[in-house]
Design brief:
With 120 residues, the chain is mostly helical. 67% of the residues lie in helices and 3% in strands. Strands 1-2 form a two-stranded antiparallel sheet. The model has no long low-confidence stretch (mean pLDDT 76).
């Protein structure tokens, strides 16, 4: 075995050491714990600052879609019991018994048409 290979193997293979000893990891960082090495460690030590920023943008993006629902819920609770809401509920109660079967039928027809045309 060439003398260089044991040195490389010693760097890359996991080494069990006593607690508190610093060991070199494959990405040339130093750590006290072998399980906290590589990307798992570098993601939180400032090398990848885009992660918190990406998480912030994801939360803002999700909040854009949740905010109208929250506002609708708050508005409905404040207006509940008024004449306009009671009339809207009566109209929706009558119409909903027709909307669901019509939409399900149209989706079924569309899926059937798409299935038949894709088989041809």
């Amino acid at each position: 075995m060439p003398p260089v290979l044991p040195q490389i193997a010693a760097r890359l293979l996991p080494v069990t050491t006593q607690p508190g000893l610093r060991i070199p990891c494959a990405d040339r960082t130093k750590t006290d714990r072998p399980e906290a090495s590589g990307l798992a460690r570098s993601a939180w030590n400032g090398r990848m600052p885009f992660f918190p920023l990406a998480l912030l943008f994801i939360m803002i993006y999700d909040f854009m879609y949740i905010l109208p629902l929250i506002l609708l819920y708050i508005g409905y609770n404040k207006l509940q019991g008024t004449a306009a809401i009671r009339k809207l509920e009566r109209v929706l109660d009558k119409v909903s018994s027709y909307i669901v079967p019509v939409v399900v039928s149209l989706v079924g027809i569309l899926l059937g048409y798409y299935g038949v045309t894709s088989l041809m």
